[in-house]
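Re: duplicated header lines in exported C-alpha cells

Our pipeline writes sequence and C-alpha cells for each protein into one text file. With two proteins the header for the second block appears twice in some exports. Here is an export where it did not happen, for reference. First protein block:
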Amino acid sequence: MSTLQVTWFFLIGVLFTGYAVLDGFDLGVGFWYLFTKKNKERKALIKSIAPFWDGNEVWLLAGGGALFAAFPHVYATVFSGFYLALMLVLYALIFRAVSIECRDKLTSPSWVKFWDYAFSFGSILPALLFGVALGNILRGIPLDKGMNFSGSFFTLLNPYALLIGLLGLFMISTHGALYIAMKNEGELVSKARRWARISWYIYMFLFILATIITPFTQPHLLRNYEGTPFLWSVPILTLMSIALIGFFNKYGEDFKGFIVSSISIVGHFSMVGLGLFHI
C-alpha cells in the first residue's frame, strides 16, 4: 500500500475505535435498560447519556465517510454485501434515537413501554450486528470475480462471526454497566456493579475463547505477528485490561474500571487492525 493508503487505514481505524469507545457506553446503557423495572432508574439511565449520545454517533458517520473516500471498493463491497444487516442497524439506531426524545411525551403505559423496548433493542441489535460484521471481515467475505458479494444474509451468520458478535456485545455491555456505575448514585450504582461483574465474566470467557480459536480457524490474521514478537504485547495488554475491569469493579473504582474498559476496546481494534493490515 502507498503511504497515503496506510495513513487512511490508520485514520479510519481511529474513527471506528473512537465510535466503539464513545457510543459503546451509550449502547451498553441500552443493553441494561430493561433490567431495571423502576421508572425513576430508567429515566436516570437516559439522562446519563442524553448530553452525549447524538455526538458520539458522529464518529460512525465520519468513519463511514472516510471509508468511502479512501477505500471506495471496500465501502461498496461491504455495504452491498451487508445490506440487510446494515438496514437493520440503521432502523435500530433510528428507533433508539426517537425513543429518547418521544418516551416521555405521553404518560400512557403502553406508549412508554413501546419506546422502552425500542430504546433497549435499538441498542442491543447494533452492538451485536457490528460485531458480526467485523467477524465476517476478519474471516473473509465471499466475492465473485466482479468483487461482488456472492453469499447471503445467512452466510454472514457463521459460527466465527457470531462469536465475535457476542464478544462485541458483552464488551459493550460491560462498558455500559461501568458507565452507569460511574454516572449515578444509590441503589442504581450497586445494580450496575453487579451487571458489570456478570457481563465481565462472559466478556473474559469469550475473549479467551476467540483468542484460542482464531489461530486455528483464521491463521491469516496472524501473518503480521510472525517474526515480530513485540506485536504480541497488544493481545497481552488487552487481556490485562479486561482482567483489571473485574478488579476495579470489585473494589468500586468505577472511573478506573471505565478507563481500562476503554483501553480494552482500543486493544481489540488494534488487534483487528494488525490482523487486516497487509502491505
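Second protein block, exported in the same file:
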Amino acid sequence: MPLDQSPERVLALSGIFQAARLVQQWSRQGRADSLPFGASVRSILSIDAADAAAVFGGARGVTLGLQLLHEKFGGGAGHRDLEMAKYVIAMLQLEATLRRRPEVVDAIRRGIDAAKSQTGALEIESDGTVPTQLVEKLAELYTRTVSTLTPRIMVSGEQGYLADPQVAAAVRAALLAGIRAAVLWRQLGGSRWQLLLSRRRLATEAAAWLETLRLH
C-alpha cells in the first residue's frame, strides 16, 4: 500500500455506499444494477487482494459508490437519503462488533473459502451477472454469522420483493459486501471521525477517482 492511504480508503468507503444502494435496489425494485452487484460480490471473495482497487476488480468496480460518496458528501443540493445513511452506519457498527468477535470473523473466512470451493466452476460474468448458487451461499453465510450480531440491520422495502427468496438472498449478499468494505475501510485507517470531519475531502477524492476513470 502507498504511504498515503487516503485514495485507497475512499474506494473502501465507496464500497460501503455502493452496497447500501444495492440493498435499496433489491429491496425496493426486486433487481439491482448488475455491474456494481457483481463487483461487490466479488469483493467478498477477494480476501487477500493486493490493494483496495483489486478487492473490487479495479476501481471501476465501485463507480456507483464513488458517485454516491461524491453526491452525499459534496455538499450538493441533492436530497438526504436517511435510509442509505442508516445502512452505512449499521455496516460500520457491525464491523466494530466483529473486531470484538474473532470467532465470528474466523467463521466468515471459513465460510467464504467454502463458498469459493463449492462454486469454483461458477464465475461472475463480465456483465456482472452473479451465479445464483454463489449468492445463496453468501446469503447463508450472512445468516449464520453476521445476522447473529447486534445491531441487526433492518431492511426496508417492498414486502413482495423481500418475500422472494432470491431477492432476500441478494440483499444479504449485498450487506455482507458492505461489511467487507467496512473492514477494508478500518484496515486502511478509516474512522468515524473522518466521516464527520473530512466529508469534503472524501468527496474531493471520490471526484478525483471518477475523473481518472473517465479518462481511462
